[in-house]
Amino acid sequence: MVLKNKNILVGVTGGIAAYKAAELVSTLRKMEANVRVIMTKSACEFITPVTFQTLSGFPVRHELFTDWSKNFIPHIENALWADAVAVVPATANIIGKIAHGIADDLLSTTIMACEAPVLIAPAMNEKMFKNPIVQGNIKKLKDLGYCFVEPAEGRLACGEVGKGRLAEIDAIIWYLEYVLSKKDYEGLRVLVTAGGTREPIDPVRFISNRSSGKTGYELAGALSMRGAEVVLISAPTNLKVPYGVDLINVETAREMYEACMESFDSVNMVIMCAAVADFEPADYSREKIKKDSGFEILKLKRTPDILSEMGRLKSQQFIIGFCAESQNLEENARRKLKEKNLDLIVANDITKDIFSSDTTSIIILDASNNKFKYDGISKKEAAHIILDAAIEKYRSSFEVK
Ligand code: CTP
After folding, report:
1. Residues 374, 265: one domain?
2. Where are the beta strands (DSSP E) in 3-151?
3. Is there a single domain that holds both residue 176 and residue 247?
4. What is the pLDDT along the chain (401 residues), one digit of tens a residue?
5. Could you tell me which of 102, 157, 151 has the C-alpha nearest to residue 130?
6. What residue's CA is closest to ligand 1, atom 18?
7. Looking at the domain assignment, is residue 2 inside a domain?
8. 312 and 229, same structural domain?
9. At what angle do helices 253-264 and 306-313 cross, to 10 degrees?
10. Is the distance from the beta carbon of residue 259 to the nearest atom of ligand 1 less than 6 Å?
11. In ligand 1, which atom is closest to the CA atom of 310?
């Protein structure tokens, strides 16, 4: 979403990981970004410009003194065009050149002329990466505001094992989205809960619900991208933890309650997206219950209502609840907003919303009777819409007072 229609200039330098930049360009194009590629002369030893030309749909250059016809000055034109630059992979040489203001080819002159954010993904031998000269150059560039995607540990092309492999492409994409995102949540610590809790009956069985956790994870990811410090308290899911998010794993409603209470005092905002079980088995059986044991009726007892407790305790916290209903959606959502002392509630009609799906329909309601309705949007879009509404309300409720 963030990268759609953005102009991304990919600089490819001469390392064995140069071929991985092809996947980056292809992924960026699938995300509807406009991509141009500049290669260094050494990069052309590892992969041909034709590959990038085909993937980006734009001619690939590596020489400084070509195409100067009709007042087209390639390094200036590219520098002005780019919304962000990604140097992938970045060798020790290009890092050293940028750090010392050396501009002697198309990529280094373009970066020197560019005011857009520059993301650098180093990839090299571990000893080269650890070299104090390289580390000094990286530190200097970080201090100047250049953004780095740390290389990963693993087996390197030279046969050694260590830190120096190019970061995963999805990590590079995440950082690109990060540098291009507004940072309207900077300075805020936000607690997000996600997933459906599991209430054990015996060592092999539990009661749970159909929540996939997707909306909660999208919210945590979007918050981290928008500059928040994020604590994600999650019941079991199959989802990948978003970058930059502190994850606390829990299983039951009681564990989620304990974890939420522990974080509550330190946060500015709570987004209670988890599908918390309202009931747990009254008696847990330590042994597996046998089918011939005469066990036919499962006795249940209530779990703590975490959101109500937070609504009761709140001081500086802005609290957002969710409401899943199969009937009287708005009426129930308004009642929960009031009864649980919330600032905002997001209502979901579960007859329209399929739990495992990537799309959703939501209604956002606030205590001043405002109502915003969105149908058939992706859960990623929903996350950003909820955050837009929340930050506006948060700033007007807490900062103007
Ligand atoms: N919630 C909670 N603790 C519970 C149950 C729910 O914190 N034990 C939170 C949910 O995370 C959600 C909100 O309360 O943000 C509303 O949850 P929902 O299941 O829609 O409603 P309930 O309050 O459980 O009421 P009911 O099941 O009767 O609709």
Report:
1. yes
2. 7-12, 34-39, 84-90, 118-122, 147-148
3. no
4. 789 999 999 999 999 999 999 999 999 999 999 999 999 999 999 999 999 999 999 999 777 776 656 667 788 889 999 999 999 999 999 999 999 999 999 999 999 999 999 999 999 999 999 999 999 999 999 999 999 999 998 887 777 788 899 999 999 999 999 999 999 999 999 999 999 999 999 999 999 999 999 999 999 999 999 999 999 999 999 999 999 999 999 999 999 999 999 999 999 999 999 999 999 999 999 999 999 888 889 999 999 999 999 999 999 899 999 998 989 999 999 999 999 999 999 998 887 766 678 888 999 999 888 999 999 899 999 999 999 999 999 998 876 54
5. 151
6. 323
7. no
8. yes
9. 20
10. no
11. 7
Residues 81 and 220 in one domain: no
User: Which of the 8 DSSP states describes residue 350?
Assistant: T
Q: How far apart are CA 304 and CA 314, in angstroms?
A: 16
Centre of ligand 1 from the C-alpha of residue 238, in Å: 22
Going from the Cα of 305 to the center of ligand 1, the distance in angstroms, rounded, reads: 7
Q: How many domains does the chain have?
A: 2
Closest residue (by CA) to atom 12 of ligand 1?
322
Q: Which domain holds residue 106?
A: 7-180
CATH number of 126's domain: 3.40.50.1950
CA 314 to centroid of ligand 1, rounded, Å: 17
Phi and psi torsions of 56, nearest 5°: -90, -20
Ligand 1 centroid to 284 CA: how many Å?
A: 23
- Residues 256, 168 share a domain: no
Residue that is last in its domain, among 180, 200, 221: 180
Return the amino acid letter for 324: A
| 1 in a structural domain | no
Same domain, 233 and 130: no
Strand duo 318-325 + 300-302: pairing: unpaired
Catalytic (active-site) positions: 158
Query: 244-247 long-range CB contacts below 8 Å, 24 or more apart?
Result: 244/178, 245/220, 245/221
Cα gap 363→323, rounded to integer Å: 10
CATH number of the domain within which 360 lies = 3.40.50.10300
Domain boundary among 153, 180, 207: 180
Quick one: 68 and 150 in the same domain? yes
Residue of 233, 276, 280 best suited for mutating to test ligand 1, as the one with most atoms within 8 Å of CB: 276
The pTM is what?
Answer: 0.88
